[in-house]
Amino acid sequence: MRKWLLLVLAFVPSIALACPVCGNAPEKSQAAYFMMTVVMSLLPLAALGGLFYLFVRRQRRADALADLARLMPPSSARPGGAPVVETRASIVPAADA
Amino acid sequence: MSAAANPALTPPRARRERAPAIAPSGVIGMLILILTEIMFFAGLLSAFTITRATAVMGMWPPPGQPRLPVEDTLINSAALILSGIVLAFGHWRFKKSPAQVKGPLIGALILGATFVGLQGVEWAAMLRQGLTLQSGAHGAFFYVIVGTHAVHAIAAIGGLGYVLYRALRNTLKASELYTAETFWYFVVLLWPVIYARVYF
Q1: DSSP assignment, residue B9?
Q2: Per-residue confidence (pLDDT) for residue B66, from 0 to 100
Q3: Among partner residues A44, A48, A62, which is closest to B22 by beta-carbon distance?
Q4: How far apart are CA B26 and CA B11, in angstroms?
């Protein structure tokens, strides 16, 4: 019974009003605290999510191009000997190799 | 048909070979650094936003504090944003021919240095008007936020300077350019956020 009561109370935190700064402050101040809490909570998620999406997209593009290059005829059969499709290795300049 | 005759049957990476990176290591490391710096500046701007919201009678700047030079800083901002555009142009030129990146690099460096220099001139003017680090929350937040960005801009100028040095010696690697570029774009794109929040 106590567990269920605690669970219900978790959804109504405004009852506590324990914070002397944001719980009993002018409306403008409360709004600022709330907005900044939302921003600081969501910003790292958005930044990390964006980074992961960027890496996953580049990896999938590299895999697709590598698969396509594997199915292409040998480069010696083409005039000039240059491959048509970028291979995975050529997507990132290998200047550091 | 054997696997040797039909390439389509060849298993991926049949030979022992290392999969190439999807991005240079320097760029990945720089992106991780930028993530931490974004959170750092977000914390500063968050504290500034809340302090400004709790200002007495909603007045900001507080009474007796000088107003920030919004119009003059617009010129600095234009120089910094232009430096980002010039560097992006240099990136495009580098892909065509590495030797063609020197001009845009010099241009981006000069514009970036112009931004930092003009910010210094503005700071001197603000100090003469009485806005100091100890004069109140207004001054403290202004110098800490804008000063931290200036430190990042100076570090980014240093990075671009090293890249220019390598380019002039024709030993510039693509990953070096991309790494310095990434940090420069961060500095450039962060400034409008700071300008909009702090100056207005």
Answers
A1: G
A2: 87
A3: A62
A4: 31
pLDDT tens profile B137-149:
999 999 999 999 9
Token pair listed for B182: 């990434």
- Chosen for mutation from A27, A28, A30, A36 (greatest number of chain B CBs closer than 10 Å) is A36
Q: How far apart are CA B144 and CA B136, in angstroms?
A: 12
ipTM over 0.85: no
With 90 as the cut, is the pLDDT of residue B125 above it? yes
CA-CA distance, A71 to B160, in Å (whole number)? 41
Say if residue A17 is exposed, middle or buried (CB neighbours under 10 Å; 0-12, 13-18, 19+).
Answer: exposed
Residue B5 tokens read as 């005759």
Instruction: Spell A40-50 as b/e; 16+ CB within 10 A means b.
Output: eeebeeebeee
- AA letter at B49: T
Give the model's pLDDT for residue A31. 86
User: Which residue among A32, A43, A94 sits closest to B50, beta carbon to beta carbon?
Assistant: A32
pTM above 0.90, yes or no: no
User: B35 pLDDT exceeds 50?
Assistant: yes
Rg, Å, chain B Cα set: 23
Calpha distance A11→B142 (Å, rounded): 39
Q: How far is CA A62 from the centre of its chain?
A: 19
Nearest to B40 by CA among B149, B131, B196: B149
Q: Is A27 on the interface with B (CB under 8 A)?
A: no
